[in-house]
Recover the amino acids of this structure.
């Protein structure tokens, strides 16, 4: 631990959500420098990968003419490469080219599901959006960072970019000599080093809301000692339409918001990028397929299933059972 250090904190807003950072430091005079370093990393991720910012590299790629070639900036290329790998590994449960579906269900920049007069897609619109989301149409060379827009392919890296932002912030802090820190962006966390009292950064995994008459499962606590955690929940960004619950995780195979009763999936990984991406992939896969996928890749995951009677049932992968305290 950093003997004689005090815990400092900063917070702010980015990517339509909030961030905060705690760090242990003997030097109490460098808040401004730390904030500037954090915001530079967050701004870089937004400038490259935001679907909301029309001037981002990703938005410009999405608008580009069919057949046009683009040399992607380094962070965008790295995140895209990871996303394409997970798309293959998860047989398309994770899909970086689901932008058209995300938009049409009202979770993109516009139209929003909260806008007056918004209606979910009909069958024809769904088919049109489904035709654009084959990530294999994307020719991407990771060595040269060159990507070709095949025409109408809409990238959406929102399920992985926040995790990457957390990793960047943690590395920037390490670059400032800050070895002991806890970083959060929009619910994704990464902890490195120790608190000044010599303890690791313990966190409690967020539990989904439980129906009246049921007790919540006992809290799961993890020590983020060189570890990241991400939780995907069906209750955070969602709306109801004609009695159906529509969360912002879309199953690209059906083109519809997931509806298989997973209340949340938490994933632990050394990299927040992978924790974020895997939690989305496993949410879309559903509990049984997700468990098999996570076990096959040695992923530490906690599945919380919403049962028909409103109760919550937890299932842990082997790797998660070894890490959760
Ligand atoms: P959660 O924290 O609930 O996992 P994320 O923010 O990580 O949510 O990812 C959800 C976002 O990812 C959606 O708002 C959408 O932009 C995008 N998305 C939705 N479905 C998929 C999918 N199947 N694969 C990849 N990205 C998706
Ligand atoms: Mg995610
Ligand atoms: Mg997430």
């Amino acid at each position: 631990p950093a003997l004689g250090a005090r815990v400092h904190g900063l917070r702010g807003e980015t990517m339509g959500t909030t961030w905060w950072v705690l760090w242990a430091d003997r030097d109490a005079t460098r808040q401004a420098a730390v904030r500037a370093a954090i915001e530079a990393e967050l701004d870089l991720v937004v400038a490259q990968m935001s679907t909301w910012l029309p001037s981002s590299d990703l938005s410009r790629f999405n608008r580009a003419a069919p057949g046009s070639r683009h040399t992607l900036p380094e962070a965008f290329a790295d995140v895209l490469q990871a996303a394409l790998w997970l798309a293959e590994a998860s047989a398309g449960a994770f899909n970086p080219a689901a932008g058209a579906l995300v938009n049409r269900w009202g979770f993109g920049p516009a139209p929003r599901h909260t806008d007056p007069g918004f209606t979910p897609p009909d069958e024809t619109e769904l088919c049109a959006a489904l035709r654009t989301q084959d990530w294999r149409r994307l020719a991407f060379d990771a060595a040269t960072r060159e990507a070709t827009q095949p025409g109408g392919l809409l990238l959406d890296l929102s399920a992985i970019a926040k995790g990457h932002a957390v990793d960047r912030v943690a590395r920037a802090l390490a670059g400032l000599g800050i070895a002991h820190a806890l970083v959060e962006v929009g619910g994704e966390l990464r902890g490195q080093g120790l608190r000044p009292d010599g303890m690791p950064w313990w966190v409690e995994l967020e539990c989904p809301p439980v129906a009246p008459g049921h007790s919540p499962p006992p809290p799961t606590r993890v020590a983020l000692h060189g570890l990241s955690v991400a939780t995907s929940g069906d209750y955070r960004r969602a709306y109801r339409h004609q009695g159906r619950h529509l969360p912002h995780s879309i199953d690209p195979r059906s083109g519809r918001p997931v509806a298989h009763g997973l209340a949340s999936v938490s994933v632990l990984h050394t990299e927040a990028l992978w924790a974020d991406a895997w939690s989305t992939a496993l949410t879309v896969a559903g509990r049984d397929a997700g468990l098999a996928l996570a076990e096959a890749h040695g992923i530490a995951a906690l599945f919380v299933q919403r049962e028909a009677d409103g109760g919550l049932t937890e299932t842990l992968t082997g790797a998660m059972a070894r890490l959760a305290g």
Summary: Residues 159, 230, 232, 276-277, 279-280 surround magnesium ion (ligand 2) (CB under 6 Å). Residues 227 and 270 are 4 Å apart (CA to CA). The mean pLDDT is 94.
